[in-house]
Amino acid sequence: DLGKELLENFVVKICHAKSSWTMVVGAVSGGVDSTIAAKLMSMAIGDRFHAILVDNGVMRMNECAQSKVLLQEHLGINLTLADASELFLGRLKGVTNPEQKRKIIGNTFIEVFEAEAAKIEKEQEESGKGKIEFLLQGTLYPDVIESISFKGPSATIKTHHNVGGLLEDMKLKVIEPLRELFKDEVRELGSILKIDDELVWRHPFPGPGIAIRVLGEVTPSQVEIARKADYIYIEEIKKAGLYRKISQAYAALLPVKSVGVMGDNRTYEQVIALRAVETTDFMTADWFEMPYALLKKISSRIINEVDGVNRVVYDISSKPPATIEWE
Ligand code: XMP
């Protein structure tokens, strides 16, 4: 019923545009919020909704390909995948400042998204169809509160929201079907819509992705190391049945080298930091008490399976004073 009510609510909003060819675009990331918003939208107006998935080169392992299959094949959403990974990674070259990374990724994202939307609009116009008038966003209630009282610590410490600029540039009206819901309600809605549990319970992932989890310069090889370590970490957490108990977990690659030993040889390689937190609102968070046996297994797998890493550490800092992301 919750889904039905929401759906009716925003279908009415779209219909007021009257033109039967009004189109809606929206960015999807493969995360819970954007996927559920996109599913609702495609249920409402079918092919007149175009989802755009931008590959920024700093997503998790296999994430783009898996999200494409899920959105397009399982959920039947009209999807364009824009592979801009080289563009993003090229612009990140030599950049080490976290806010600078966010700015580059946010601006490049807007540029790529707008170019894709313009292509879609042109194709539609050529076939006698209408213009893009709306932008779908998966905004949740906590985001609404945060932007009203935009003086909160997270707003000044890290600039989180990367798509605001889209609205100014494209002059689109916004549709936010989830703006009155909290995360647990969105998950409930996902279950009502029969969206895969794997996606419904997925941990949040920041827009700038692995770029803010590779401390220091973001190069393709550094991203690869962080990605592989993260994959092993999450795989083991899931196998241990702890994934849902943890609010967010990831592996960060530290910009330091440390001495190790392998057989008869001395090694001088990088360090992976494992982070896992429990939180309800992400404004404060406790570090998760990961079982030692599990940490042991994860550490040994990462050191054995990921080239370039000879040391793994576990982060035991709560927020505040630490933040959830390292950058
Ligand atoms: P922090 O690190 O501020 O993170 O404790 C709180 C939550 O926000 C996410 N986060 C971001 N999300 N763009 C995003 O879309 C960002 O730049 C960004 N920085 C942090 C973080 O993953 C956590 O869930």
UniProtKB/TrEMBL annotation:
Domain GMPS ATP-PPase positions: 1-202
Keywords from the named record: ATP-binding, Glutamine amidotransferase, GMP biosynthesis, Ligase, Nucleotide-binding, Purine biosynthesis
GO cellular component: cytosol
EC numbers on record: 6.3.5.2
Catalytic reaction(s) noted: XMP + L-glutamine + ATP + H2O = GMP + L-glutamate + AMP + diphosphate + 2 H(+)
Pathway assigned in UniProt: Purine metabolism; GMP biosynthesis; GMP from XMP (L-Gln route): step 1/1
EC class name: ligase
Highest taxon above the source species: Eukaryota
Residues the record lists as binding ATP: S29, G30, G31, V32, D33, S34, T35
A GO molecular-function descriptor: ATP binding
Function in brief: Catalyzes the conversion of xanthine monophosphate (XMP) to GMP in the presence of glutamine and ATP through an adenyl-XMP intermediate.
The protein, known as: GMP synthase [glutamine-hydrolyzing]
Organism of derivation: Boothiomyces macroporosus
Portion of the parent chain present: 181 to 507 of 507
